[in-house]
Amino acid sequence: MSSGADVPMSKTDWIVVGAGSAGCMVAAQLAHATDSRRGLITVVEPPGATARQIDRERPANWLNLLGSSEDWNLSTQESHQLANRTIRWPRGRGLGGSSRINAMIWFPPTRKDLQMLVTASGGSWSISKLQQDLKDLTQWTRPEPPTWQSESSQRFLQATNQLDEGKAGSYMRLNRSGRRWNPAELLNAAQSDGTLEVQRATVNRLLCEGDRIIGVETWDDHGKNRIMANRGVIICAGAIATPGILMRSGIGPREQLQRAGIEVRLESEQVGRGLQDHLIMPVIFQVKSDRFPSHSSVQDIARWQTMGTGPLASNLAECGGLFLDDSIQIHVTPTHYLTYPKTTDHAFMTLGVNASQPQSTGMLRLQSSDPRVPLSIHPHYLEEACDRDVTVQGMRFVRRLVKETNLSQWVVSESIPGKKRGTAQDLEKAICRYSQTLYHPAGTSLMGTMSSSVVTPEFRLRGFQQGWVVDASVLPRLTHGNPNATVMLLAYKAAKELSKVVD
User: Fold this and answer.
1) Residue 326 · residue 368 · CB < 8 Å
2) How far is CA 372 from CA 185, 204, 405, 495, in A?
3) Helical H segments across 166-231, by residue range
4) Are residues 295 and 225 in the same domain?
5) In this predicted structure, what is the pLDDT of residue 438?
């Protein structure tokens, strides 16, 4: 490490890099275990602009946040299997991270997901203890059932009960009385009593002495700064930003680091690799009723403001479930998924299909040593034939669901991909044309017991002391459903262990 004599420096006890779902949970738990007399926790999060308050509060307005000042507005590289399209990848900016702009879905890990985590831990974890942690975690997050539900969701749930070939239900949500909530709220008490501070800056790299992580170098409008940590640095920057920080610190694939002019501190080929994401294929139907309002009526506004219910309390992704032996997830939205809120002339319902456990993996590539230059995203969607096959099976299941249940009396026609597309080849072409990300990147800083894994089952950055990684990047593979609950579970578990260091 260079002396950095001309770089401003501050000191703290713990540094938490990133204030998304994981970072907020880790910081809140650490603060709960300490006080301002025994230590200070510094959370470092890049500055972000603030969207309209109404969009930040109303669940139904969350789509307005995508592409706003609260979104990093990332995009993938062209994908061969998606007809050479690029896919816009929304990532939340500001306290709360992507929980600021997501659909607020609380989908607890399945038993298979828990077993995946136990396997990755080498058996040092157990399903029963993870289940207890999950139960305790919900006392902090307090997910709520929906206060209002569209006719589309009600009819879908009735239909799945008729077919009985999977498990569906209304999604629990991170709401408070019909208003949007995000984990940044967990930091408020710790900030008010002086246990925790937030610094708005971009972390460039980790500072090391030998194999010991001693702090971070940050960038802000005033230039470089250093923050030194007495007890350790916990990286919670997410599946995209965490590998970037590691690589700029000299931890990653040798070829990429050398190309960017970064000295190799620890060669680790898995950093930035193993990228997975859920890819949703919208199957869209015109229906007889239930036109979701694209513009709020006076009555809808009053209903939401006074009681926290009505259409404005909908998160649009209201319900869903796992089908075909948990191989596919179906999301229900009472809109035309690809055009809402522009389409107002007809009523639509979208049954979005995604492979719950995709086998295709992509990678992130470092483009520059400058933290302001984003990593290049190569998701490699659908490169494994089984992912295409499973998605086709899911589309056919949705069609059968509509044909063989009460939905048949309500659906007018199939708009996308259209009933004329019936062969597997036709459906694969539709998948290439219409599929979109579900915003669930994971797996880019793999946790495991192998020497090649980036993170140990204790969340320690392999090869270093006083450094930990806790976020979606450590997931050995994607969860069957929406991963936010699982990520917060990992953060809760990690924070309990780190709290022992406080004691």
Assistant:
1) no
2) 27, 9, 52, 29
3) 188-192
4) no
5) 95
Q: Please give the pLDDT value at position 37.
A: 52
Yes or no: say if 264 and 250 are a contact pair by the CB < 8 Å rule.
yes
The phi and psi torsions of 437 (rounded to 5 degrees) equal: -70, 150
Which residue, chain included where needed, has tokens 């990992």? Answer: 490
Question: What is the structure's pLDDT at 410?
Answer: 95
pLDDT score recorded for residue 3: 45
The predicted structure's pLDDT at residue 205:
97
Q: DSSP label at 255?
A: H
3-class SS string, 161-189 = HHHCCEEEEECEECEECCEECCHHHHHHH
d(CA 24, CA 35): 17
**Boundaries of domain holding 470:** 1-72+93-141+182-277+442-503
CB 375 within 8 A of CB 127: no
CA pseudo-torsion sign 221, 225, 228, 233 = positive
Tokens for 165, please give them: 């070939």
Q: Are 410 and 466 within one domain? A: no
Nearest to 13 by CA among 456, 501, 452: 501
pLDDT of residue 289: 86
* Cα 259 to Cα 247: distance, rounded to the nearest angstrom: 11
416 and 345 assigned to the same domain: yes
Give residue 5's pLDDT: 56
Residue type at 495 in one-letter notation: A
Give the end-to-end CA distance of the chain in Å, rounded to a whole number: 30
Low-confidence ranges of the chain (pLDDT < 50): 1-3
Does 85 map to a domain? no
Which residues have CB under 8 Å from 267's CB, separation 6+?
Answer: 252, 253, 254
In terms of pTM, does the model score above 0.90?
yes
Q: What angle do CA 328, 333, 339 make, to 5 degrees?
A: 110
294 and 317 share one domain: yes
Radius of gyration over alpha carbons of the chain, in Å?
Answer: 23
Enter the tokens of residue 162: 């008729």
Give the count of beta carbons closer than 10 Å to the beta carbon of residue 310: 22
Three-class secondary structure of residue 204 per DSSP: strand
Side-chain half-sphere CA neighbours of 12 within 13 A: 25
Three-state SS string across 298-367, please? HHHHHHHHHHCCCHHHCCCCCEEEEECCCCEEEEEECCCCCCCCCCCCCEEEEEEEEECCCCCCEEEECC
Would you state the pLDDT for residue 2?
42
pLDDT at 4: 54
